[in-house]
Amino acid sequence: MANISIDPRYHRLARFHRIQNAGVKKLNDATVVILGCGALGAQHAETLARSGIGHLILIDRDFVELTNLQRQTLFTEEDAELALPKVIALKNHLVEINSSIKVTAHIADVSGDNIVNLIKGADLLLDGTDNLALRILINDACYQLNMPWIFGSALESYGMSHNFNFPHLSELPCLRCILGAIPLESGDTCSSVGVIQPILQLISSVQTAEAMKFFVDAESSRDTLFTMDLWASRSQNVNLSKLKNPNCPTCGDHPTYPSLQEKKREAQRLCGDGSVMIREAKPLDLNKLQQRLEQKNMKHQFNEYFLNIHLDHHRVILFKDGRGIVYGVNDTYVAMEVYQELLTILSVR
After folding, report:
1. Where do the THIF-type NAD/FAD binding fold domain residues begin and end (predicted)?
2. 264 or 319: which leads in pLDDT
3. What average pLDDT does the segment 195-224 reach?
């Protein structure tokens, strides 16, 4: 083991007695999925890239906006001006930080019909999402694939993290088991109550540290729910092992993974001011749509990732996979009407 050679950039990492050269080699051989590349996920990506994780798979549906820059690391004003997809902007910056690793970017709206194919083959998944429904989907997919994953959440100055499906922690409950007992999500969002950057940094540090431990020193992995209110300077570790449900449809004796069976697409309010996303299963030909917009003299901007369309009272962004984001509305039914009317005008449906 002492003869294992490593890239000189990792010498300070290897000098930590829990990691050493052998641990660095394990990190270099690892593949990690980061699902959600915003406030938490972008920091996960930077930390793991600098730590030498050999392959990072980035998954996110969103693009960079100016309001992201207060809390989402690596993104720049230029990224926001170009409205780059977050995974593309992150990949651009990560390869400049560490050219020796592989970074795969997926611009995708994760759902029950695509999550397994997007994440399979990885060794570990880090949660960077901002809603419980998507985390339940992650939970089902990871347990079906027998993949460990690390939950993380932060709002205002409060955050939490928990390790799920780690091989040596099989007695612990999954996310679905604990939902009825622990309030993991409130009705608030970052746009309604805000969030401070330090709690995001702290929770991301907890998650990425657990990821590193998983690969080089798994027995040291935390087996409790960690919570922290950074403003009040209060932290807590809670043992949840008694919440394990043997009949759980995700981690029980006869799993059915119910979230993976839900193929329905629908309208969903986003974590932002006055925007609703429409989920659709059918892809869109953005090049043809752009031509129709030009024929109808409709104001728009077009790039290889999406169409940004300016209507009289709303702005709509259309993606290749059929998704649309309608701005200027809070009502999902109104947003669906705007979306469908636009596609009708463009003779798509």
Report:
1. 10-249
2. 319
3. 96
Q: What is the pTM of this model?
A: 0.84
Domains of the chain: 8-261 (3.40.50.720), 267-345 (3.30.310.10)
Beta-carbon contacts of residue 335 (< 8 Å; ≥ 6 apart): 267, 276, 278, 326, 329
* Residue pair 197/70 in contact by the 8 Å Cβ criterion: yes
Selected residue with higher pLDDT from 304 and 300 = 300
Q: Which of 97, 96, 115 is CA-nearest to residue 106?
A: 115
> Hunting for tokens 């993380």 — which residue is that?
152
Nearest to 162 by CA among 248, 223, 235, 216: 223
* Whole-number Å distance between alpha carbons of 348 and 95: 38
